[in-house]
Amino acid sequence: MSITLKYRPHYTFKDYEKWQGDWELVEGIPYALASPNFRHQNAVIKIVSQIEPQLTEGCKACHIAIDLDWIIAEDTVLRPDIVIFCYEPEERLTRTPNVIFEIVSESSAFMDEGLKFEVYQREGVEYYILVYPERRIAKVYALKNSNYIKLSDVRDQTFTISIKECSFLIDFSKVWYQ
């Protein structure tokens, strides 16, 4: 056994709250968040600006948030780029969101496509959408029988998400930086 594995620390949310900078914590192991670039922030803004009015007008039970810590367990805290949840908001996000969007870059692919994919699947997030601004594509996954199945690769089409009694449409042709 490696010495580093033998003596690896195990952090908790109490430790996490004290850290400077942007971090995520998965089963006691900290991961530094990459600084978002322009295309990342642009995609977040364009997705939220499409969805938020639809939720406000047609679905008062659902809410959207950006960069909100999701406290999954005492030793696991993730910060999805965009979350949609259909329950009354609390001070902190402690319940499973219905939809998560992650904006994927070269530096975040390991977390978004691997670690977060597995955690979100395990925690029962209904829809997981990976958005690749550089490649101008989004991969939409839905939870079926506790596993994600890919519904679609979307480039410049619209896609409808239905959760609870609500649904909203995303026009991905309007997400990509021109």
Give the count of structural domains. 1
CATH architecture: Alpha-Beta Complex
- The CATH C-level class name: Alpha Beta
Mean pLDDT across all amino acids: 95
CATH topology: tt1808, chain A
Q: Given the helix and strand composition, which structural class is it? A: alpha+beta
How are helices and strands ordered from N to C? HHEEHEEEEEHEEEEE
Largest sheet: 6 strands, mixed
| Overall 3D form | globular
Quote the distance from N terminus to C terminus: 51 Å
Number of strands: 12
Features:
4 helices, alpha+beta, six-stranded mixed sheet, 178 residues, 12 strands, tt1808, chain A, single chain
Report on this model:
The chain has helices spanning 3-6, 13-16, 38-58, 109-123, and strands at 23-26, 29-32, 63-66, 70-73, 76-78, 82-85, 99-103, 127-132, 137-144, 147-154, 158-163, 166-171. It is of the alpha+beta class and 178 residues long. The strands form four sheets. A six-stranded mixed sheet has the order 3-6-7-8-9-10, sandwiched between helices. Strands 1-2 form a two-stranded antiparallel sheet. A two-stranded antiparallel ribbon has the order 4-5. The termini are far apart.
